[in-house]
Amino acid sequence: MYGRYSRDLQHFAGEEARRLKKLAKLRKQEDKLRSQLFELEQNRCTRLHSLSAWTSQCIMDRLAKDWIFLTVCAIIMALISFFMDEGIRISYAVRFWLYNDVAGDLFTKYLAWVILPVFLVVFTAGFVNHLAPQAAGSGIPEMKTILRGVHLKNYLSFKTLVAKVLGLTLVLGSGMPLGKEGPYVHIASIVAALLSKLATPFRKIYQNESRNTEMLAAACALGLGTCFAAPIGAVLFSIEVTTSYFAVRNYWRGFFGCVIGAAAVRLIAIWFQGADTVTAIYPTHIATEFPFDSRELIFFALTGALCGLLGASFVWIHRHYVLFIRSSQLLNKFLKKHLLIYPAIISLIISTLTFPLGSGQFLGSELSSEEQLTELFSNFTWTRTDHNVEEAHIVSHWTTKYSNVFGNLICYTLFHFFFSIIGSTMALPHGMFIPALKIGSGFGRLIGEFVAWMLPQGVRYGGCMSPIMPAAYALVGAAAFSGSVTHSLCVAVVVFEISGQIAFVVPVLVAVLVANAVASMLQPSMYESVIMIKKLPYLPDLLYTNSNLYGKCVEDFMVRDVKYIWQNMSYLQLKEVLRLNKKLRSLPLVDSKENMILLGSLQRSELVKLIEEQVGRERRMQTAQIWREEELKEEQSQRRPSRFEVIVTKDELTKQRSTDD
């Protein structure tokens, strides 16, 4: 049968294949024609939608590039800086309006001067504590910890950004002796972290932890660059302060972001704040033909040494003051229960001391922080008597009928020295760099005015007289004290950029080096001190003065009698180990007592829970119940027959059958 119809089947299969092939070809042509007709019927809006989707995808892919990322971050930071400066300016304007125009007598002027700062500080303390407590403080110690690879919860969140920006604006607008450099670094880091999350869907590289760390390091430089419009010093700051080991490939990112941010800040000042051109923030106008005499380097070095001692004292007093508050159980308990009492008291005291008709007349309190620094850098001697109208107006802020220039500068320096420490203990966003600049510039101006008073004609050198410039000493003091507090040399470059003065490179660098040498021998930096106070998981560098530590080996401080548990130990042995070591919170788990291969560690609470589950009272009761049930079953299965059994006899059986019948 199969051989008979094989040829016919083959012919049929061939025809069927040709028919299916032709049918498939026709269907393909019909599908093509149908798709063409569908495309013809497709409206213009749909085409534009697909075109826009393709265009947006291409644009977002380009925007995820590093230089675009840094540009966007820099522009955002410049806008944030502009709005914050405007908010601070408005707060100052409202305060002086209440003081000058609204209030009449002495008491109402005092209330007008005090009530707004106290309200702003108390509101900021409550707002920050409710929204994001992580926004309190500087932010640089936390960023140093994060850049070391430690994850701090919610320190780079959007809530922290809002609390930091609004809180810092209100705090600086209240006139507290605090700064903004540290919070700017924190804000820029948060902006970079949030932008990285937005860029992740377009470039998966932003999910990489190493790339995020590099962007955070660049953001730290960007924050300082937008704060002072000092790109070079900001990059050096990110290298020197925020990280211990800086990746060279990240250098261009920091520089690029800082330049864009600084340029944006200065351009916004020209467009919206009425600035004439791009100038220094605190101009000095010091003549550069013969700026200083070489013999003045002795005075500059002495200024650096004194600033080093003051900087180390500043860090020591700050740390011990904070530790005193924390160690006092009664005070600590009261402050935790009444969070707003401490900020209210401190702000009230500071506002009272800065009251212009009271002790504030010795502190230049009628000036803002920027105006104070600008006048401290003014290029003329305050102790002279032949001042013009503009110079006399500046000197009037630093003299009273009760005191001269020296007394006011001493009061100004001491006030900011101590109350910057006290104010920084409030749970508010704040920085310490601008207070350090003010303390250093006030102290340097004091030394410069004293030298100018001692040498009114200047220093004779080569047949000509070199006048003493107190503004140069103010610059040197500002850089030296800031460097001694932060243990960094980049502050010298920052001072050059914010003052627009490059003629005093050698004096400033000499003073900063001397101040750093003195301060580093006595105390850690302010940032490391805060890390120690907050007990952040940060491994500090060894100080060069502690040379004995470099000879220490692990065996000198290792624990030799290590308590451990092994894999096949009994519950009795485990219970005995826990009983003998009640202070241990965790125990290492090894393979066996012979191999001692570490498998991991177990918490004491988990081990106690395990013992309770396995050999505890409840477990013993369950085991006893099981044993009891097993005994009952065994008794039932092994029950013996009774000796008295009823057996039916044959006669009884026959009788029973007959009865049934």
UniProtKB/TrEMBL annotation:
An example Gene Ontology CC term for this record: plasma membrane
Keywords: CBS domain, Chloride, Ion transport, Membrane, Repeat, Transmembrane, Transmembrane helix, Transport
UniProt keyword annotation of Transit peptide present: no
Residue ranges annotated for the CBS domain, each copy included: 558-618
InterPro entries: CBS_dom, CBS_dom_sf, Cl-channel_core, Cl_channel_volt-gated, ClC
KW Transcription regulation (keyword) present: no
Main subcellular location: membrane
Compartmental location: Membrane
Topology versus the membrane: Multi-pass membrane protein
A Pfam family hit: Voltage_CLC
Transmembrane portions of the chain: 67-84, 110-132, 152-173, 216-239, 251-272, 297-318, 339-358, 405-428, 471-496, 502-522
Gene Ontology terms, MF aspect: voltage-gated chloride channel activity
PANTHER family named in the record: CHLORIDE CHANNEL PROTEIN 2
Record family assignment: Belongs to the chloride channel (TC 2.A.49) family.
Name used for this protein in its record: Chloride channel protein
Source organism phylogeny: Eukaryota, Metazoa, Ecdysozoa, Arthropoda, Hexapoda
